[in-house]
Automatic annotation (TrEMBL):
Belongs to the EXO70 family. This is Exocyst subunit Exo70 family protein. One of its GO terms (molecular function) is phosphatidylinositol-4,5-bisphosphate binding. Residues 260-615 form the Exocyst complex subunit Exo70 C-terminal domain. It holds the Pfam family Exo70_C. InterPro entries: Cullin_repeat-like_dom_sf (IPR016159), Exo70 (IPR004140), Exo70_C (IPR046364). Keywords: Exocytosis, Protein transport, Transport. GO terms for biological process: exocytosis; protein transport. It comes from the Eukaryota. It comes from Lactuca virosa. The keyword Transport applies.
């Protein structure tokens, strides 16, 4: 308690002394000395405080002298109009002065409660700020000067200083400019656009700026220079940025711009950005204290170019879902998908996470667009109207278009990956069909929509036989395109067998609707008729045969069968059914009494004539419109 009382008494004495002495420290000390003469108990305590005061004054005086000395040194450098780093000795001296200034500030900051110390620290902070401004300027000059030469006389995205992983060997490359090979086929390379000596100088500056609390300013200085480098590199690859590229795409969605973009994003994500990440780490160091500055610098350097590249892909995804855009979107989808591992690794820190997430979002939207195109293809098939019939029952353009489209689409392995999600079979799909994948479900459904559309178009034909030929042509074309193709692997053998059976049934329907009527005229009566009655009956049947046969041959000679094998099968089938019956009929007819001498009058076609006329069927053009078969 007594000790606490003495402390309070001393504090009161000091307060009175300071109040009387105002700001004059010497007067304050004299007054405290007088107080100590009144009571010996205060002498020891006050003397201790007076001694402490002397030490403090001496320390502040030393700090003041240090700051004056540093001010003279530093001012000589911060005011010069030429780069400090043009002379390595000047750069080293300036950095030593900065280090000494930072050390003084750190040493005296805990004593900032003292007004004299605070005044010195304020001066020191002002001086430090001048140092940081000059260091930032020098940093930018080094970045610009170091990155200038490699751009000249190079192709494919700017030049580079090849940097060895072995730091001891770096010096031999300091003076040598080694351009990247063009075109680049191997992306497993790392380049530095700055020489090793410049990188070391930048590291020394960044270390001081980050240590002094100016890490953000250093990061912005770094990124402002490197951002221009990356954009210039991409421009040299033909990618002119989002606005110009989208303007070109709006004209005709041309493949040239997409090809340029694919080249640019591959170079950016596989070469430029990894190289930039490595350069950032070398400039700012690998310690935990500088990690945030390195991450921020990398993000700011890559942000604009990476977002422009991704926004280009996003514009493709958000565009029209017309079926003819599928292959362009697939190209873009494949490019983004192949680069996702690099996006995951490069942009994983807190600053870059939004770039990685945007890449994932663009990738997903491209997949949604591709799936949406197949839905639009369904709608296109449904909306295709049953207007005029295809002449001769030939191949309908919608069948040719859809089958060639699906064959080309399914030749892209990526397409199956796009559909590899849980997909419920569309309502109405054939439940007896067991698809092997979600893509197979989609293809099977489109095939059903196409078949329904073709069946509706077949009803335009008034002649049932011609309707069967139309269905036969289109059904055979579908089966032929599916067989021995990726479509066949997706749809499976059961699907193929089922549709081969459908084509066979159309064949049967054709023969029944065309030739059964003629075959009926050739049927022989088993009744024992008198010669006169039999002669009259045979003459009538022969007359009907001649009329029907000539009419069918004249009509069906203009019909079309696109597949030569199918055409021959049909002719053989008709010959096989008609010729034996006609031979038998003629033999019976010519055996009738007194008929042989009038045979030429009634027999218009001999057997060879019938065969020739059948072989002249189906001479029409099988494919309506132009395009691939």
């Amino acid at each position: 308690m007594a000790e606490n009382g003495e402390e309070k008494l001393i504090a009161v004495a000091r307060h009175i002394a300071k109040t009387l002495g105002h700001t004059d420290n010497a007067m304050t000390d004299d007054i405290l000395q007088i107080f100590s003469n009144f009571d010996g108990r205060l002498r020891e305590k006050l003397n201790e405080n007076l001694n402490d005061g002397d030490d403090s004054r001496n320390g502040v005086a030393a700090l003041d002298q240090t700051l004056k000395s540093l001010d003279r040194q530093i001012s000589r450098y911060v005011t010069v109009d030429h780069p400090i780093w043009s002379d390595s000795a000047d750069a080293s001296t300036f950095l030593d002065a900065v280090d000494e200034l930072v050390a003084a500030i750190r040493e005296w900051t805990p004593m900032a409660a003292d007004k004299a110390v605070t005044a010195c620290l304020d001066r020191a902070e002002d001086l430090l700020q001048q140092c940081m401004f000059r260091l930032e300027e020098e940093f930018k000059l080094l970045m610009e000067r170091g990155g200038a030469d490699p751009f000249e006389n190079t192709d494919g995205g700017g030049g580079a200083y090849v940097d060895s992983d072995d730091e001891e060997d770096n010096d031999e490359y300091d003076e040598a400019e080694i351009p990247v090979a063009h075109p680049v086929s191997d992306y497993n390379i790392i380049i530095d656009a700055l020489p090793s000596g410049t990188i070391n100088d930048l590291h020394e500056i960044s270390k001081r700026m980050v240590g002094a609390g100016y890490g953000k300013e250093c990061s912005l200085a770094y990124s402002s220079c490197r951002r221009d480098f990356l954009e210039e590199s991409l421009s040299r690859l033909g990618f002119s940025g989002l606005q110009k590229s989208n303007a070109a795409l709006e004209d005709d969605d041309n493949e040239v711009e997409i090809d340029k973009w694919i080249k640019a994003i591959n170079m950016a994500v596989r070469v430029f950005y990894p190289s930039e990440r490595r350069l950032c780490d070398r400039v700012f160091g690998y310690s935990s204290s500088t990690a945030a500055a390195a991450d921020l610098s990398f993000m700011e350097a890559c942000r604009i170019s990476s977002m422009e590249l991704l926004n280009f892909a996003n514009g493709i995804a958000m565009g029209s879902r017309a079926p003819d855009r599928l292959f362009k979107i697939l190209d873009v989808y494949e490019a983004v998908k192949d680069l996702m591992p690099e996006f995951e690794v490069l942009f994983a820190d807190q600053y870059c996470l939004f770039i990685r997430n945007e890449a994932i979002g663009v990738w997903k939207r491209l997949g949604e667009s591709i799936r949406g195109i197949f839905m639009e293809l369904e709608n296109l098939i449904r909306r295709d109207p049953a207007k005029a019939a295809v002449p001769g029952g030939g191949l309908h353009p919608i069948t040719r278009y859809v089958m060639n489209y699906l064959r080309a689409a399914c030749s892209r392995p990526t397409l199956e990956q796009v559909f590899d999600e849980n997909v419920v079979p569309p309502v109405g799909v054939d439940r007896s069909f067991s698809p092997s994948s979600p893509l197979a479900v989609q293809i099977a459904w489109i095939m059903e929509v196409l078949e329904s559309n073709i069946e509706a178009k077949s009803k335009i034909y008034r002649d049932p036989a011609l309707s069967s030929v139309f269905m036969m042509n289109n059904g055979r074309y579908i089966v032929k395109k599916v067989k021995d193709d990726e479509l066949g692997s997706l749809l499976g053998d059961d699907w193929i067998r089922k549709h081969v059976g459908k084509v066979r049934q159309y064949h049967v329907n054709y023969q029944r609707n065309s030739w059964n009527k003629i075959l009926n005229t050739l049927k022989l009566d088993n009744n024992n008729l008198s010669p006169n009655v039999a002669s009259k009956s045979f003459k009538e049947k022969l007359k009907l045969f001649n009329s029907h046969f000539e009419e069918i041959c004249r009509t069906q000679s203009t019909w079309a069968i696109f597949d030569e094998q199918l055409k021959e099968e049909l002719k053989l089938s008709v010959n096989g059914a008609l010729l034996p019956a006609y031979k038998t009929f003629l033999a019976r007819f010519l055996n009738i009494q007194d008929i042989a001498k009038y045979a030429e009058k009634h027999v218009k076609f001999n057997v060879e004539d019938v065969e020739d006329r059948i072989n002249g069927l189906f001479q029409g053009t099988a494919v309506s419109g132009s395009g691939r078969k």
